[in-house]
């Protein structure tokens, strides 16, 4: 049951962070290169994602707040690196519209973020 709850909250928090990311991206893109607008979306969504995952998805974490924050920052940056590579490949390489490319990139990077969050950043105490 605990894994189901974790998975459900991860989905809710992840969707909220992704919508935040997409919203900031859509707002910033007319003023920035798409790659920079993606980075701006990531920065804002990071706060939503960390807070939600720390207090909802992984509330039984066996790590301290600061340890989780440092680890999640590494996890999120790894996810963003994957996101940006996929985003640029879809946007520049395949010519997809920017919002479509970002949506696909966010979906693909989320699996990596979940695995690293569950197994490392918010590792449960045994």
What's the short story on this structure?
The protein has helices at 2-28, 34-57, 65-93, 98-121.
Written overview of the protein:
- The protein has 126 residues and is an all-alpha fold.
- It has one domain.
- The protein has 4 helices and no strands.
- The protein has helices at 2-28, 34-57, 65-93, 98-121.
- Helix 1 packs antiparallel against helix 2, helix 1 (2-28) runs antiparallel to helix 4 and helix 2 runs antiparallel to helix 3 (65-93).
- The two termini are 17 Å apart.
Describe the SSE topology:
Elements: H1 2-28, H2 34-57, H3 65-93, H4 98-121
How many H/I helices? 4
Structural class: mainly alpha
Query: For the report, how would you describe the main beta sheet?
Result: none
Number of domains: 1
The geometry reads as: elongated
Secondary structure: number of strands:
0
Q: How large is the share of residues in beta strands?
A: under 5%
User: What is the helix fraction of residues, given as a range?
Assistant: over 70%
Oligomer: single chain
For the terminal residues, how far apart are their CA atoms? 17 Å
Low-confidence stretches: none
Average pLDDT, all residues: 89
* Helix-strand string: HHHH
Our Rg estimate from Cα atoms comes to: 15 Å
């Amino acid at each position: 049951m605990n894994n189901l709850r974790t998975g459900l909250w991860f989905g809710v928090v992840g969707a909220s962070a992704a919508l935040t990311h997409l919203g900031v991206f859509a707002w910033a893109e007319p003023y920035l290169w798409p790659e920079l607008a993606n980075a701006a979306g990531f920065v804002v969504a990071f706060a939503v994602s960390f807070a939600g995952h720390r207090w909802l998805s992984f509330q039984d974490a066996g790590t301290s707040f600061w340890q989780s924050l440092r680890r999640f920052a590494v996890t999120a940056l790894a996810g963003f690196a994957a996101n940006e590579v996929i985003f640029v490949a879809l946007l520049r390489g395949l010519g997809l519209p920017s919002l479509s490319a970002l949506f696909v990139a966010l979906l693909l990077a989320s699996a990596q973020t979940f695995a690293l969050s569950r197994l490392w950043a918010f590792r449960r105490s045994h």
